[in-house]
Structures are given as C-alpha cells and as structure tokens.
C-alpha cells in the first residue's frame, strides 16, 4: 500500500500513476465504477439505503493552510452535508480532526426539514482523531488503524456507500482503497487540470478569453523572464500577478508593479533587481524567501493584471457526474479582500444578471474539455470581468477541481428549500416558484467577538429574529461556529427573497453580533 507521510512533498513527487502499483490502479478504477451504478440506482431514490462518509480534509500544503485564520475549523464547513439525513434511510459518518461541539451538531440537525432530530441523530456517526496538528485530516485517519476499523463497522451497504471530500489527493485515494468504497471526486491523477498552469491551457482549448501571461514556470529566473516578456508585449502594463500553481483563496498570489520600469533597454535587469523588494504578497506575513522556496516546489504562472473602472470577480460552479454528464450548478459574484483584492471573503448568489448567462456558457465550454479528460465531481471556474463600452469582457483565471467557498452556501440553500436552479435565467426557485438569493461569507471577523460561544451566536439569531425560518424560507444559517470564541470569526449564509433582503440580513447579523460583543465587556 502506498503511503504519503509528508504532504508538503506531494508537489515534488512524480504523477500518481507513477507511484501506484498497477494492481492498486486497477483496484481503484474498479472501485470507482461503483459510482456509475449508484448514480443510476441509489442517488435518484430518496428512500434507498446508503452510507455517506464525509471527509472535510483540506489536503493542501500545510504552509499555505497556515495563512488562513482558524483554518482547523474549516472542516466544519462541510457540516452542511448533515442535511443529507433528511433522506430517512441515509447514514452519515462525519470525520474531523478534533471533536465538534454538540451545540453545533444539534444546530444543524434542528434545521432538517421534516425529520425529527432524534431520528437523524441515530443515523449520524461523528468520529474525531483528537489531533490538532497541521497534518491533513485524511493523513490522520490513515495513521489510525482503530479509527479505520470503526469507520468500516459503521458503513451499512457497501455497494451503496461512498466518500465525499473537499479535495482529492493521493491521500484520499488511499483512504478509499482502505475502506473499499469509492471516492466521489476527481481522480488525483487528473487534478493537475486544476493547477494555474494547466487551467490556462484548458481556457485556450475551450476558446475562452484569459489574461496575457506565461505558465509552467519553475523558479525565480522563470518569473523574471515572464515578467520581462509581458512588459515587452504590453509597454503600458502597470502590474502583473505571480501565482503559485497550487495556491488557493488568493493566498498564493503576489503583485508586481512596473512603476519606474525602463521603457526599452534594461527591462530584464530592472525586473531582476526589483523582484525581491517590489513583490507584494496577498498572504499576511509572507516573505520573498518563503515564497521563492514554495514557488520552486509548486511552480506557477505570471499573468497581466486586468485593469478596469468597473471590475467584478464572478464564478461558475459545475459538476461532471460519474456517467460523464456535465451540469451547471450555479453562478456567484465573489466578495474579495486582501491588499489587492484577491483573497476570497464571501459571495453573492446569483452572479449579476448582466453577465451570469455569459459565464455559464464559458463554464460549459471549459467543462466539456475537463469531461473529455475524464474529470468527475464538482469544480468551479473563476473570472475577472470588466465592463467596456460594448459590454462585459470576461477573463478566465482559475479552475478549482474541488469544493470551495461557494459550495456549502448553495448546498444549504438546496437542502433547506428543496428548490431548483433555472439554467435559462440563472435564478433559483423554491417549490412555490419564488426566487431566492443569498449573501454568504466565511470571514465575519472581529476581535471583539472573541469569547463568544456558538450558544451565544444562536441565542442572538433567535432573539433578533435572524434564524432561518422554514415557513418563509428566509433567514441566516451559520457555519464555522467553532472558530468564534478563539478567533472572533464565523461564517453565515443570509437567504432572502430579494438581493436587498439578503444583504440586509447580513448587515443585521454583523450589527447584532457587535451589540452582543459590547454587552460582554
């Protein structure tokens, strides 16, 4: 059996196919074929018995993960999948690094429409590694034979069980083989299609616009050459973006300014002299020496900075089923922050009416390329969109072959309202044919909130009438509650019948929590 003990070394390893014995490759392929049968026989039937193992591991480079405040609580974002317990014969096994507070579990179970909480709780198994280290959760599980055995004992119906995860790496593949149930995610051998470099190749093949840039860069010399080439091609270019191939949430990005760059001769020397001091990092506390070392491990790209007076950052979410069917799931406008506005803070659903169908179309073209390559599971495509006199111009900048910051808000909307997404206009409708919108954030953060507990947050929501109401199908649903007391940070999905109502709920939530914090002093 192949074991990975150091995730930081993953990016220096040869492709997965070169690491696995042929018998393991064949075993995994056979395992994955079960998904096709399940899509046909199990998934469409709400009464079919099944077991879903929820694996919220953020299997990324540990150094990159430490850039996110309270990152070990991000495993809680997939608690939205406890809503699968509304299917009365479904069992859920939820894995976590550390125990999740019972208040938080009860909160989600009480959101279940039409299912008694006790009935749902009997079909839920929460298993914790009791391990706060920065290793990926999947690695922790694999290192605990007794925990693996407990998972196996709780699985009911092996031919109707699967693992759902945040992202797929060789670690998740190894766990699927260890448990002998398939992984509903992209095969790790194909996840290179989600790197910044390969993404640019897909955009070109799909005929979708992308920023001028250079990909498959390996080191500092490549960065210097790429920045020089961009400036020579675009003499008026003011800035460029350097990105780590496997960076996420914008934390692996850095801005290079061409201010005072010579116009003709000497561009390369000037870039080389300026690089270590001019590069501005999105991640707090990042240094050039750290970034250069990480770039040497991961590789990356350089792209032109897209300027514009009216600029947005929409995204389209898609899915490719195990049967190879491509589906558009949703569109969002991303809410970004950080020094140059590249770090994901939240999103609004749906994307602006002016262009949501245009990015749906671009997402479909990109999805067709990925489908032909054998990719399955959820993915998202991010864009930079600029309004010009002749309309909106969209530049594809990234493919995320995983769940992301827009996944759990939309899943909560679906689970709570049991509605449908309309491809023709990009809106979501309840069964009563009423549209719903939301504003969602993973980063409602204030040091004044430190010391508040999940119970305090829930009390505030109920007293201020912010809690989600099943009758009106509007209100606020919380996540990341475990991070509140230690970091003053939590997340919320604010669902309303108009975009204005969703925004108002978000503002009321922030205001109510600020008042609760003041009362603590």
Quick rundown:
The protein is built from 17 helices and 20 strands.
Explain what this protein looks like in three dimensions.
This protein has 521 residues and is α+β, with helices and mostly antiparallel strands. It has 3 domains: 179 residues; 93 residues, no CATH class; 95 residues. The chain is built from 17 helices and 20 strands. Strands 10, 11, 12, 13, 14, 15, 16, 17, 18, 19 and 20 form an 11-stranded antiparallel beta sheet that branches. The chain has a 5-stranded antiparallel beta sheet with strand order 5-9-6-7-8, with helices on both faces. Strand 1, helix 3 and strand 2 form a beta-alpha-beta unit. Helix 10 packs across helix 11. The longest helix is centred in the C-terminal third of the chain and has 22 residues. The chain starts with 15 loop residues before the first helix and ends with a helix. 46% of the residues are buried. The N terminus is likely disordered.
What's the topology here?
Layout: H1 16-19, H2 22-41, E1 50-55, H3 62-65, E2 90-96, H4 102-109, H5 117-122, E3 124-128, H6 137-142, H7 145-154, E4 161-165, H8 170-179, H9 196-206, E5 213-217, H10 220-233, E6 239-244, E7 253-257, H11 267-278, E8 280-281, H12 288-298, E9 300-304, E10 311-312, E11 314-320, E12 326-337, E13 343-349, H13 356-372, E14 377-388, E15 391-400, H14 407-417, E16 420-422, E17 427-429, E18 435-445, H15 454-463, E19 475-479, H16 484-487, E20 489-496, H17 499-520
Parallel strand pairs: 1-2, 1-4, 2-3
Antiparallel strand pairs: 5-9, 6-7, 6-9, 7-8, 10-14, 11-12, 11-14, 12-13, 13-18, 14-15, 16-17, 17-18, 18-20, 19-20
């Amino acid at each position: 059996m192949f074991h990975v003990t150091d995730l930081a070394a993953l990016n220096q390893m040869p492709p997965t196919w070169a690491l696995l014995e042929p018998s393991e490759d064949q075993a995994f392929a056979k395992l994955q074929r079960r998904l096709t049968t399940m899509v046909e026989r199990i998934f469409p039937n709400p009464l079919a018995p099944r077991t879903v193992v929820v694996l919220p591991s953020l299997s990324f480079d540990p150094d990159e993960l430490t850039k996110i405040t309270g990152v070990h609580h991000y495993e809680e974002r997939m608690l939205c999948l406890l809503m699968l317990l509304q299917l009365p014969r479904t069992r859920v096994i939820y894995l976590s690094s550390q125990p999740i507070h019972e208040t938080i579990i009860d909160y989600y179970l009480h959101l279940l429409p039409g299912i008694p909480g006790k009935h749902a709780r009997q079909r839920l198994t929460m298993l914790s590694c009791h391990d706060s280290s920065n290793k990926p959760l999947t690695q922790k599980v694999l290192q605990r034979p007794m925990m693996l055995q407990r998972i196996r004992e709780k699985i009911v119906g092996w031919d109707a069980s699967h693992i759902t995860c945040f992202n797929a790496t060789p670690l998740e593949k190894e766990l699927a083989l260890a448990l002998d149930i398939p992984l509903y995610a992209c095969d790790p051998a194909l996840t290179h299609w989600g790197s910044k470099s390969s993404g640019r190749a897909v955009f070109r093949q799909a005929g979708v616009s992308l920023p001028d840039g250079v990909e498959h860069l390996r080191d500092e010399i490549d960065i210097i050459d790429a920045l020089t080439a961009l400036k020579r091609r675009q003499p008026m270019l003011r800035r460029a973006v350097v990105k780590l191939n496997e960076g996420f949430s914008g934390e692996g990005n850095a801005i290079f300014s061409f201010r005072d760059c010579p116009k003709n001769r000497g561009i390369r020397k000037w870039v080389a002299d300026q690089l270590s001091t001019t590069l501005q990092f999105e991640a707090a506390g990042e240094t050039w020496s750290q970034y250069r070392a990480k770039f040497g491990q991961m590789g990356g790209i350089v792209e032109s900075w897209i300027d514009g007076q009216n600029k947005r950052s929409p995204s389209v979410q898609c899915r490719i089923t195990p049967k190879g069917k491509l589906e558009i799931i949703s569109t969002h406008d991303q809410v970004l922050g950080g020094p140059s506005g590249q770090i994901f803070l939240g999103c609004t659903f749906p994307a602006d009416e002016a262009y949501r169908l245009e990015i749906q179309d671009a997402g479909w073209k990109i999805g067709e390329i990925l489908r032909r390559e054998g990719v399955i599971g959820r993915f998202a495509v991010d864009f930079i969109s600029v309004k010009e006199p002749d309309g909106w111009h969209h530049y594809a900048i990234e493919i995320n072959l995983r769940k992301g910051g827009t996944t759990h808000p939309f899943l909560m909307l679906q689970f709570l309202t049991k509605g449908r997404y309309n491809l023709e206009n990009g809106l979501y409708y309840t069964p009563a044919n009423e549209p719903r919108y939301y504003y969602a954030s993973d980063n409602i953060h204030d040091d004044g909130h430190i010391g508040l507990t999940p119970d305090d947050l829930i009390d505030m929501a109920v007293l201020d009438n912010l809690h989600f109401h099943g009758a009106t199908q509007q209100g606020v649903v919380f996540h990341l509650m475990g991070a509140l007391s230690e970091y003053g940070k939590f997340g919320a999905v604010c669902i309303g019948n108009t975009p204005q109502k969703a925004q108002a709920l978000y503002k009321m939530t922030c205001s109510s929590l600020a008042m609760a914090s003041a009362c603590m002093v």
